[in-house]
Amino acid sequence: MELRFVYDRPAAVIGDGRRGLLVAGDVHVGIERKLIKEGIRLYSATEHTANSLKGIADEFGIRKIVLLGDIKDTIMRPDTSERNALQRFFYDLRGYELVLVRGNHDAYLEDAVKHNLVDELLFDRFALLHGNRWPSEEAMGKDYILTAHNHLAISYTDRVGTYKEKAWAVCGMDARAAAKRYGSFNRGIKLVIMPAFNDLILGPEARDMRDPNTSPLLRNRLFGYRNCRFYTLRGELISPRSRAAAGRGVTPSRESLSVSRSSRTRAPRALSGRPYPPAP
Question: What pTM value is reported for the model?
């Protein structure tokens, strides 16, 4: 099966049709409650998130949705408001088969929605986990590890100004670093980091991938910044020009500002509703 990024949406598709999976991470149901305390009222954010998932799943004929952790927003036990938001979210997704992967915000989620959670999902050539914990050795034998957790974003500058937006990362592994933790692993494995699905979350820049709150795979350098390719949601390849650029954030190479010949194998023409070609 192939992994494809959904054009202009922070979601991925594995396989096709009813045998396929729609994968989305960091939906953070209940985030409206946090914003209300800051004077921002968004009454339909949970409904919008659920409808976005349903729309993508229906477009590709997929009936199975994997929520890749941080399904709820608060870390502690949900209060009445968040519990109601969660129950409304899962009610809106009735009719779909849901797989819930546990994230660091998902304590007590099973009590609120009566769904079982898993720490990681192994599916075909893929290992899916939230990203806040070490993968199993079996997961390290797959071709791809797909994680969320980092809320990845990139910033870049062109002639008009500086921008920040959600991004994907596809990273190669440092086998020497991996050998310190794992007895066996696939030396060609790639780490794919998803952006947050919730439209209200942007996240830190790629240069912060070594932050203590990132994946242990990143902060222990099994997968490193210099071994990553970064893509916008539109499939534009954004890559650091040099080591100096890595300290300042991500700067686009000239060809990354449009879908060039060098990146077109990974990024689609601007066709709404079509998935990317397979991830690199």
Answer: 0.83
